[in-house]
Structure formats: structure tokens, C-alpha cells
Write a structure and sequence with these properties.
By secondary structure, this protein is α/β, with parallel strands linked by helices. Helix content is 36%, strand content 20%. The chain has helices at residues 61-67, 90-107, 119-129, 144-152, 165-173, 189-200, 204-218, and strands at 8-13, 22-28, 42-46, 73-82, 111-116, 135-137, 156-159, 177-179. β6 (135-137), α4 (144-152) and β7 form a beta-alpha-beta unit. The longest helix has 18 residues, at 90-107.
């Protein structure tokens, strides 16, 4: 009898592909939760994004709490900090991220984070709040020193089309790596796995098993 292969895990995507043998975690804004697509291998994260000025408000928090309790929502996000965006300021972002971190703790949901040029501020929040829920930096493109700092702080790193092999190897060795397609509609998660397998000098079947095991640990009981 042939052993069934572990599915691919697309930890963060903005495009539903319904690809066979793939579990997708679709990132949604509040404005999208009433029209979510559905299939058996599709799950959701919902968060207040620093690019969404109309949603990044205190008044959105009760709506977010309600959305996070919808079926198949298994993470909060993407939330985060972005010093480069023109849509909101860091001063506007910080209190809303703090509130979302507290909400992820209350509802016992991992949080998927968008992070641009604000690593010190994020780690300061982590030291202050001492969260128990997993934090995952999505679309990580940073170098080895940055990766090591985040990994030592206990964060997971999710890698997409553009990654530095040395950072991926460090995160994978620590058991804190995931893969994603993010907002690239032409990109398949299979292509990301293939590139990651080559960078890790690891066969793809083993990588699939490892990342699926990690995902089951991160998102129980949804993926168990």
C-alpha cells in the first residue's frame, strides 16, 4: 500500500487556487469576510492590516473579534507594522497591533505578521506582552542576522518567492519555517517548495512532511 503524501501548506495567500494536495490559508480583510469562498482545504486568517487605513481603527476591533470566530478561521492576520507605507503611520499602527495581539491571546489564535523596517518595535512589544500564541512573520526576505534575532525571540518565518537561502536554512534547522505564495497570482506553492527544497538540499517529499507536521502543531485541532 502506497503511503499518502503530506499536503503542501500555503501558509499565507491572497488567491484561492483549490490546488489538489494543498492546504491554503487565505488572508482576508474585514471587508471580505462576508464573501469568503469555501472548499475543504481552505482556511482563513483575518486581521487589520497597516495598509488598510479605513479598517485600521479602534472601531474595527469588535468586528474583527466577531470575524475571528467564524468557521475555519484559524489565525489572526495579517496584522503588523510598516514604516514604509504611505497609508498609515507607525503611531497609528502600534496601538491597533497591540490590541490584535491581545485578541489573539484571548481567542488562542496564532498571529500572522506583516513587518517592514519595524523589527525593534515588534520585538519590544513581544517582550512587553509575553504572548503565548505563535507569531509568524510572513514573506520574510531578511538576511541571516535578522532571521536569527527573530528566531531567537521565538517567531516563525514564512518564505515566499523571494527569500535568502541562508535565512531559510536557519529557520528550517530551528523548526520555525513555513512557505507561502502571498499576493503573487502566477506563483504556485509547488514552485516555492521546489525552490526551498533546492536551497535546503532536501527532497520535496520530506519537506512536505516536515512543514505539514509543523502546521498541525501550530493550528490544532483544525489540521490534526
Amino acid at each position: 500500500m502506497t503511503e499518502q503524501l503530506a499536503p503542501y501548506i500555503d501558509l499565507h495567500t491572497h488567491h484561492v487556487r483549490s490546488t489538489p494536495d494543498t492546504v491554503e490559508l487565505l488572508s482576508c480583510y474585514l471587508s471580505e469576510v462576508d464573501t469568503l469562498p469555501s472548499h475543504d482545504s481552505l482556511y482563513y486568517s483575518v486581521g487589520l492590516h497597516p495598509w488598510q487605513a479605513e479598517e485600521l481603527r479602534e472601531e474595527s476591533l469588535p468586528l474583527l473579534r466577531k470575524a475571528l470566530q467564524l468557521p475555519r478561521v484559524i489565525a489572526l492576520g495579517e496584522a503588523g507594522l510598516d514604516k514604509a507605507t504611505k497609508y498609515t503611520t507607525l503611531a497609528e499602527q502600534l496601538p491597533i497591533l497591540r490590541a490584535q495581539i491581545l485578541l489573539s491571546e484571548e481567542l488562542e489564535l496564532p498571529i500572522i505578521l506583516h513587518l517592514v523596517r519595524a523589527q525593534d518595535e515588534l520585538l519590544r512589544l513581544r517582550r512587553e506582552l509575553q504572548p503565548k500564541q505563535p507569531w509568524i512573520i510572513h514573506g520574510f526576505r531578511g538576511g541571516l542576522n535578522q532571521a536569527r534575532q527573530l528566531l531567537r525571540a521565538g517567531l516563525y518565518l514564512s518564505f515566499g518567492k523571494h527569500f535568502r537561502p541562508e535565512s531559510l536554512r536557519e529557520a528550517h534547522a530551528a523548526g520555525q519555517a513555513f512557505l507561502e505564495t502571498d499576493d503573487a497570482p502566477e506563483l504556485s506553492i509547488q514552485a516555492v517548495y521546489q525552490a526551498a527544497s533546492e536551497a535546503l538540499a532536501l527532497d520535496e517529499f520530506t519537506l512536505r512532511e516536515q512543514l505539514y507536521t509543523s502546521a498541525k502543531h501550530l493550528f490544532p485541532p483544525s489540521l490534526s
